[in-house]
Amino acid sequence: MAADRIEIRSRIADARARVRQRYLEGLGFAGRIEGVEIVDVYTCDADLGEARLNSLAEALSNPVTQRASVNEAQFPEAFDWAFEVGYLPGVTDNVGHTTREMLSDLFRKTLPPAQGVYSSQVTFLQGNLSPDEVETIAAGLANPLIHSVRIKSREQLIGDGGMPVTVPRVRLRAAPAADTLPIRKAGDRELATIGKLGIADPDGSRRGPLALNLAYMRAIQAYFRRQGRDPTDVELESLAQTWSEHCKHTIFADPLDELAEGLFRTYIRGATEAVRRHKGAGDICVSVFGDNSGAILFDDDHLVTHKVETHNSPSALDPFGGAITGIVGVNRDSIGFGLGAKPVVNIYGYCFADPTDARALYKGADFTQKMLSPRMIMSGVVHGVNVGGNNSGIPTPQGFLFFHPSYRGKPLVFVGTIGLIPRTSAGRPSHRKGARPGDLIVMAGGRVGKDGIHGATFSSEAMDAGSPATAVQIGDPITQKKLSDAIVKEARDRGLYDSITDNGAGGLSCSVAEMARECGGCRVELDRVPQKYPGLAPWEIWCSESQERMTLAVPPQRWEALRDLLARRGVEAAVIGTFTDSGRCLVRCDGRTVMDLDMAFLHQGLPAEHRGTKDVRPSRPEPKIPDRDDLTGTFLSLLSRPNIAGQGFISRQYDHEVQGGSVVKPLQGRGQVNGDATVTRPLLTSPGGIAISQGLYPTYGQIDAYHMAACAVDTAIRGAVCVGADPDRLALLDNFCWCRSDEPERLGQLKRAARACYDYAVAYGAPFISGKDSMFNDFKGYDEHGRAVTISVLPTLLISSIGVMEDAARAVTLDAKFPGDLVYILGETFEELGGSEYYAMWGEQQGRETIGNSVPGVDAEKNLKLYRAYFHCVREGWIASAQSVGRGGLAIALARTAMGGMLGIEIDLEGLPGSTAGPEADGPGGDSAAAGVPSPTTSSRVSRDDFTLFSESQGRMVITVAPENQAAFEKRMKGLPHASIGRVTDDGRIHIRGLTGETIVETALGPARDVYRRTFQGY
């Protein structure tokens, strides 16, 4: 049967084409490309007939602005080259999938699984370009892991009558079967090879990494020797998924030095247990560390959940697919919490290399397997989270960007979701769930394919030439939206299932096996699993991480009602087995047993490894920066740095208004300045809100990972407090992204960071409710000269905060409100610039990395008193605006306050707390030891204007207060470090006088806002 091709071309100027032309100009083709046009293509592999094809073409186009044709090529009169980008066989094609559903609805015709609709795009270029240049342009818009590209010159395209009709259909072997692996007699070398590179296929190739070290392989070998047989490939692959670092978090779980219970139990869970004991009746935690997300109290009738994940390795290979899979995957962590929470807020955070870095990297030797450019990674990741969140109807208000060369090999992509769930559902506590013997195992949502195989094991290793393309997935948010609504809006409250979880890492192998722990066993029939195409091997069906799927435990008597509900909502579901109390995980395929493992061995059989650390904290010299009288140029340069500049290009494309609960928005004030925290009302019938913020300081870890973590905790808490959250009702999440985590030096840094998490969570009374770690963010490959290189990310810790506000109407934004308002600084400023943006900028100007040694310290006891006093002032309505002081220091916080309100400020630093000219106060160490926190590093009081402006001392806020509230405000702040340092003006200027009273910064708001916005223009 021949396939048909529908082409749709715009009759008017196409905004997409303009954006694409600007993008290509940014790749170095400015002035070379005279025009760009785009034609959308839909290839139909179905027997529709001419009339139906014409009807489908009409449905896919707007007759006023577009022209549709069937089996007739369309191209502009003026073009020189054309290239078509489509998906490779088996890659998720969301546009094609949606068109297939449209076809079914339009003609009431259900296509068989072997037939489909496939989308592609033809880009026409006008310009004097060489064939090599066109290949470069096409490569900038396609990813060879997921896309096919066809290039034709004008003469070729016209001569051929257009692009060829191509159907990217998957073709696999017809009779898949499980293989038996003879490992009982294997030696250590063979075991290590299998564990590292994967199972060998008949042609000698390897299936992909299992991430099983020799100790793990020996344990597996010993188990099967006791069983008197060799394992099947299904069993070995399943053990690899279940035991992977990605799933078991062994580095945090295993004994470390004197910590017999490991880092997690000692420092993360240990902190939460200590905080909860201390709070007693004031404990806000409901479910921590035992489910897909953590949950705290929202009101008498609801809980809010929170989880933040990383999707680093997949995003390095396919940025769009990795990011969209990350965000829809963490949405499912919300849906899979308890009996199902509704996703109400998304958050994001990206650590990238400089997008202007054009140097090439290769995974393979001899300039093979070229890595994507930082610009392409950044564009793809941003777009992926856009599509995942916007298409799912979930607001995405909160996030951050951070740039450093260490993220050139692997970006860090953080994605998170906050959920809302009633405290009871169908007469049951909604946060409790459990599969029961006899419950049916139901898989609901998307079908299984090759995409996502070895995702968990791939993410547990450094990325190199053996990193598998099958680890790449592309999420389908439309399919997931239908599944989510059916679950959290209907099935949950009808009590149609006993337990639910996400088919994330490891796919069915992990979701079913994890749920089987709740009852004691399971029996699965793989041939009942819905598949995207025939020919998948049993181990592929069992371990694939194809997206949009949930596993449910359904009582037999409720299956018909659930199946009917899901079918009416357009969600496919199938019974694939039964939960048991047999103590075994039994999996069959086509009548043959392909897996029969003891549940205890599957989940607890991995051997613990007692690791040791080495505490290395290098001492670096402080840079000798000349003292300058006029700091205006330095101030403006700092304001334009990527780690500080406005990220409105993201905030404006991520829908934060959907669901209608946005209160404090990502862009604040008339000047539209990015805030450090946002507030959302998850339940429109309640005045309550949730405040969310975060802290991340990777460069501080180059000096001391302990203080890096302390600053991250303090900043996450301070950001939420600034917008009006109660400092005594906050919860935290930790996300560790480390590198070379089997090295004692890196483990030493990890241990210090985790200890700081404990110390400061306890000191602030803020429990950890969830977390995630990613331990091997390293790239091993070759540079543009063919030399072997290893690029490891900076040890990076993201701390996220969430707090419940009783009345979101009291929330505070960062923008100055009225001329005449007083400007205050809360907290003390010290000469703490180690790892700062100011030092980094100075070093770049000198052509060398500059870090310094004076890392900021955190006095938790003093800060908490200050935050509580500030919160009292918020409740009284005395705070007009508030801005946390973070990266870039006081100067940047003042600029953001002024730019946000589009009002001037006049500042005098003579009375700044902490400066040599300011009032005397305890040093940064204070008496924090009383709170159980080691004293921060001893730092000097600032005596220079540049250090005063750009120090990144913690615990500080810039706030504005109306004159009529001055007396009450200052009375409440008495005895705490604060000072009135200026006022808001209506002259549209930023004017700052230094420690001696001389003007050090003088600029109009316009130039300041221009440099703040200019950095990411065109992105």
Distance between the termini: 43 Å
Percentage of residues in strands: 15-25%
Helix content: 25-40%
Taking the sheet with the most strands, its summary is:
7 strands, mixed
Number of strands: 40
Q: Can you list the strand order of the major beta sheet?
A: 18-20-17-21-19-22-23
CATH architecture of the domain at 814-1019: Alpha-Beta Complex
CATH superfamily of the domain at 814-1019: PurM-like C-terminal domain
User: What's the CATH topology name of the domain at 814-1019?
Assistant: Phosphoribosyl-aminoimidazole Synthetase, Chain A, domain 2
Poorly predicted ranges: 456-461, 463-469, 917-932
CATH class categorisation of the domain at 814-1019: Alpha Beta
Structural class: alpha+beta
| Mean of residue pLDDT values | 90
How many DSSP H or I helices? 30
Taken from the alpha-carbon principal axes, the silhouette is: globular
Please give a structural write-up.
By secondary structure, this protein is α+β, with helices and mostly antiparallel strands. Among the domains are: about 5-160, Mth169, Chain: A (2-Layer Sandwich); about 815-1019, PurM-like C-terminal domain (Phosphoribosyl-aminoimidazole Synthetase, Chain A, domain 2). The protein contains 30 helices and 40 strands. The strands form 9 sheets. It has a 7-stranded mixed sheet with strand order 18-20-17-21-19-22-23. Strands 35-37-34-38-36-39-40 form a 7-stranded mixed sheet. A hairpin with a 4-residue loop joins strand 8 and strand 9. Helix 13 packs parallel to helix 16 (about 475-490). The longest helix has 21 residues, at about 745-765. The chain is globular, with a radius of gyration of 29 Å. The two termini are about 45 Å apart. Mean pLDDT is about 90; it is low at about 455-460, about 465-470 and about 915-930.
